[in-house]
Design the sequence.
């Protein structure tokens, strides 16, 4: 049953983040900064995901009890074409970083992804691309002082 597998996986991820938090607490106060900044938001997100999957499972079980028989439609299956398309975008982004550089690949990828795949308007895609690229520049090149 697909629903049971999704619930099991979400609970497994939640347990892994609990372990990550417990191990992070064993470090000294300065050394635990990085593990805890990763573990606590991950724990919250994994808890939300696990709770959502459990509630969906309860809702699906109630709906199954209320609707009789073979007339119920089958749940929609993920399309293999869409998955391949997403992987193509990811590989294209990696190739763009390799060939063009990080700061050039980010706005090009975001603009094209948002416009063609997410079906956003060109103006909206442009604004998001510019704001995100400026944010990345300020974070990495100004704040962290990394080299180009």
Sequence:
């Amino acid at each position: 049953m697909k629903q049971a597998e999704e619930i099991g996986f979400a609970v497994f991820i939640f347990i892994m983040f609990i372990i990550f938090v417990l191990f992070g607490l064993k470090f000294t106060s300065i050394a635990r900064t990085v593990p805890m900044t990763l573990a606590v938001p991950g724990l919250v997100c994994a808890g939300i995901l696990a709770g959502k999957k459990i509630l969906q499972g309860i809702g699906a079980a109630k709906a199954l009890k209320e609707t009789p028989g073979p007339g119920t439609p089958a749940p929609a299956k993920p399309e293999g074409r869409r998955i391949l398309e997403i992987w193509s975008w990811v590989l294209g982004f990696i190739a763009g970083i390799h060939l063009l550089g990080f700061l050039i690949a980010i706005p090009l990828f975001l603009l094209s992804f948002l416009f063609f795949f997410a079906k956003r308007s060109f103006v909206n895609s442009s604004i998001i691309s510019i704001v995100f690229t400026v944010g990345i520049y300020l974070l990495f090149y100004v704040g962290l002082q990394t080299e180009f």
